[in-house]
Design a protein that fits this description.
Elements lengths: L4 E6 L19 E2 L2 E2 H11 L4 E6 L4 H6 L4 H10 L12 E6 L6 H6 L2 H4 L4 E5 L2 E4 L3 H12 L3 E6 L9 E5 L5 E6 L9 E9 L2 H11 L9 H10 L4 E4 L3 E4 L3 H14 L3
Parallel strand pairs: 1-4, 1-6, 4-5, 8-12
Antiparallel strand pairs: 2-3, 6-11, 7-13, 8-11, 9-10
Helix pairs in contact: 7-8
């Protein structure tokens, strides 16, 4: 089955970027002259994704406006004879769904259950920006080969594994388990980062986990991914792209420096 749907998760209070995130959503912070989410949608579009559902919390109206047609600006540019493409995503079907109080990343994804239906789908975390490559395309290429759910990994230095979910491989080099932020004896240097290709089983696994937790506890995506390893199987792709954690200021600054160095004359 061809994969045409993708989910982008945009939520949280973005406390690391306060006070600007009181009025500017984190995904709308600029990398050079485009917001973070522009690069993510661009990545999905270039990989052949046609339908995108952006799951967002309150105060994200500016994100929705960004993907709307701006008649006033278009008119001004036309009168001045300025040729700037303001809406390169007009051929995409981009929709929004508000998620008021998600109980963790898995709960946020669960809000897309009806929209996804029975189709496999890509999940993109808006904090994870990839440049110099396309991790979504890598996932789609691997899915054609393996017909299994997949996640994206990147190599992290020794001593940094405690910041990530780290995969442990079995003898066949399949994922045996994801260890969430191991404080000692990490099983590898392969860290799970914010791109996944999942199937409808994810929603079944989530429902099982949610029933066992108190109402104020978050449901971690790692728990559902580990259930894939015991059932349908779970594979991984180590991305060739450069990954930036734009959910924190240093990562956002590094992404800007990388773009200015590599893309801007």
């Amino acid at each position: 089955m061809q994969v045409t749907k993708a989910i982008i998760t945009c939520g949280g209070y973005s406390t690391r970027f306060l006070p600007i995130t009181k009025s500017v959503p984190k995904e709308m912070l600029p990398i050079h002259n485009k917001p973070i989410i522009h690069y993510i949608v661009e990545e999905l579009q270039q990989a052949g994704i046609t339908d995108i559902l952006i799951l967002c919390g309150r105060g994200r109206e500016v994100t929705q406006n960004y993907f709307d047609k701006n008649f006033e600006v278009d008119t001004v540019l036309e009168r001045k004879g300025v040729n700037i493409e303001l809406n390169p995503f007009r051929d995409l079907n981009i929709m929004f769904k508000r998620v008021a109080m998600p109980r963790g990343s898995a709960d946020c994804i669960y809000h897309a259950k009806q929209w996804v239906g029975n189709e496999p789908f890509v999940v993109a975390y808006s904090d994870d920006l990839f440049l110099g490559g396309n991790p979504t395309q890598e996932l789609l290429d691997a899915y054609k080969k393996f017909k299994k759910p997949l996640l994206t990994t990147t190599q992290v230095p020794d001593g940094e594994q405690h910041k990530y979910g780290i995969i442990r491989l079995d003898k066949r080099q399949y994922i045996d388990e994801i260890i969430e932020k191991p404080m000692q004896n990490p099983p590898s240097n392969l860290a799970v980062v914010g791109r996944y290709l999942l199937t409808k089983d994810f929603f079944k696994f989530f429902e099982e986990d949610r029933k066992t937790l108190a109402s104020d506890k978050e449901v971690c995506t790692t728990a559902q991914l580990n259930k894939f390893t015991k059932t349908t199987g779970l594979r991984y792709v180590t991305t060739e792209a450069k990954r930036f954690d734009t959910g924190q200021p240093v990562g956002w600054l590094d992404a800007n420096l990388w773009v200015l160095t590599n893309f801007v004359n």
